[in-house]
Design a protein that fits this description.
The complex is a heterodimer of chains A (211) and B (221). Chain A is built from five helices and eight strands; from the N terminus they run E-E-E-H-E-E-H-H-H-E-H-E-E. In chain A, strand 6, helix 5 and strand 7 form a beta-alpha-beta unit. Chain A has a domain of 104 residues: P-loop containing nucleotide triphosphate hydrolases (Rossmann fold, 3-Layer(aba) Sandwich). Chain A is globular, with a radius of gyration of 18 Å. By secondary structure, chain A is of the alpha/beta class. In chain A, the strands form two sheets. Chain A has a five-stranded parallel β-sheet, with helices on both faces. Chain B has 221 residues and is mainly alpha-helical. Chain B has one domain. Chain B contains ten helices and no strands. The longest helix of chain B is centred in the middle third of the chain and has 30 residues. The two termini of chain B are 25 Å apart. The model of chain B has no long low-confidence stretch (mean pLDDT 91). Classes of the chains: A alpha/beta (211), B mainly alpha (221). The interface between A and B is medium-sized, with 29 and 23 residues.
């Protein structure tokens, strides 16, 4: 389990993340070319770029799931992860699915479910949930973690307008508490003061000339 | 530690919810063992001689069946990403899954080997020794199998690769395990084979989860 002492002290107060000149290859294809960014408490960064520009790869690299081929990722706080998939077991109820995250996290399950309007679905098996409800359940796991740094890969997939509003409110509350997030999205999010980072498509770059 | 137990708890719940997976390896074990009398002929003497060996080989093969899904299901639905990021250490995740594999596969096999043994004519006095050997053997197989499953995770044709990786590694377990089970019939002491079987288990106990943890980290990268 991660404790605060696992992280280096931030160079400036409130700094949560430093990404320095990160380069990532997939096979022999260049996916990320010298990406640098920083994230402070209260920031919300939207990652944009065409399909295949490496948005998900950048999130995976920041999370530590993938090691950068060069450059450095330094995190100064714990992170919560929302991937492409919802990671829900169809046979378990919503509460059972989130039990592990609740044990590891600091936020209470009823609070998180209430904020996302999932309370009435607590004891329903996940296979009976709609795709939007599953997405919100996966997002509840992020809230449960209590981690300051949120990495969200397409959090709004399958959500209706009301749910997106609700998500926006949760995200705003998280920023107000001193949290920060990096989000990839193709639909506009109800967030103000966002920063955006555009990843160029590197599909045309021939890796032969880079080596 | 709480996360480790919570992970085992979740796997057991899943196994009870989807009983078919557990039942499949159990039925495979019993059916496989019942095929031998059909092929070898109904000679009680022959079956009694072959009984322990048949049970050991069938248990080894039955242990392999659910390995493919052990980490495969976690990788596909994104749970493995979460476990690697926010769960316990990768080796602990792997060890929890191996423990759950033994509780849902090894333990039922152990119980099912009693009727199968009696059916094949293994004497009641030889059964405790057979079970003791099988208990250690199935634990080792869960550890070795979990390690192999994590190594082939994400590889194409991983399901085909898996037995090719596990079966050679499992040969010492099979040799010493079966030798210990034959001690009753041959009127020799089982101590030496049981010692070596235990040695296999205690070598697997730290090494397999560590190797499997690295395999899991590589699979999500």
């Amino acid at each position: 389990m991660t404790t605060p002492s696992d992280f280096p002290p931030p160079p400036t107060p409130g700094r949560l993340l430093d990404v320095e000149d990160v380069t990532v290859f997939r096979g022999d294809r260049l996916v990320l070319d010298g990406v640098s960014l920083t994230l402070d408490a209260g920031d919300a960064m939207i990652l944009t770029g065409p399909n295949g520009a490496g948005k998900s790869t950048l999130l995976r690299t920041i999370s530590g799931l993938r090691r950068p081929d060069s450059g450095e990722v330094i995190r100064y706080g714990a992170l919560a992860w929302l991937g492409h998939q919802d990671a829900l077991k169809p046979g378990l109820t919503l509460a059972q699915n989130l039990a592990l995250a609740e044990k590891l996290g600091t936020t209470s399950l009823p609070d998180a479910l209430d904020a996302l309007d999932l309370t009435h679905l607590t004891d329903l098996p996940a296979r009976l949930l709609s795709s939007g409800q599953k997405r919100r359940a996966a997002f509840a796991r992020v809230m449960l973690s209590g981690a300051p740094l949120w990495l969200l890969d397409e959090p709004t997939v399958g959500l209706d307008v009301a749910s997106i509003e609700r998500l926006g409110a949760v995200m705003a509350a998280h920023r107000a508490r001193g949290g920060a997030m990096i989000v990839t999205t193709h639909v506009p999010l109800p967030l103000d003061n966002t920063r955006s980072h555009e990843l160029p498509s590197l599909a045309h770059v021939d890796s032969f000339w880079l080596s | 530690m709480t996360a480790f137990l919570a992970l085992i708890d979740r796997d057991l719940r899943l196994a009870f919810r989807f009983g078919a997976d557990t039942l499949a390896s159990l039925l495979f074990f019993i059916l496989c063992g019942s095929l031998f009398p059909l092929a070898l002929g109904p000679s009680p003497d022959l079956l009694r001689h072959m009984g322990p060996g048949i049970i050991w080989v069938c248990a080894l093969l039955a242990c392999l069946l659910p390995l493919d899904r052990l980490f495969g299901a976690e990788l596909e639905d994104g749970s493995l990403d979460l476990l690697m990021l926010t769960g316990p250490a990768p080796a602990a995740v792997a060890f929890a899954k191996m423990a759950a594999h033994w509780l849902t596969t090894g333990l039922p096999l152990l119980i099912a080997s009693i009727p199968l043994g009696i059916m094949l004519g293994v004497k009641g006095s030889e059964l405790p020794l057979l079970l003791a050997g099988l208990a250690m053997g199935t634990m080792s197989l869960s550890l070795l199998g979990g390690m192999a499953a994590s190594i082939v995770l994400g590889a194409r044709r991983g399901g085909v690769l898996l037995p090719l990786l596990v079966l050679p590694l499992a040969t010492p377990v099979l040799i010493f395990g079966a030798a210990s089970s034959y001690a009753g019939q041959l009127a020799t002491s089982p101590a030496a084979s049981l010692d070596l079987l235990g040695a296999c288990l205690f070598a697997c106990l730290p090494l397999c989860p560590l190797a499997a943890g690295q395999g899991l980290k590589a699979a999500v990268g």
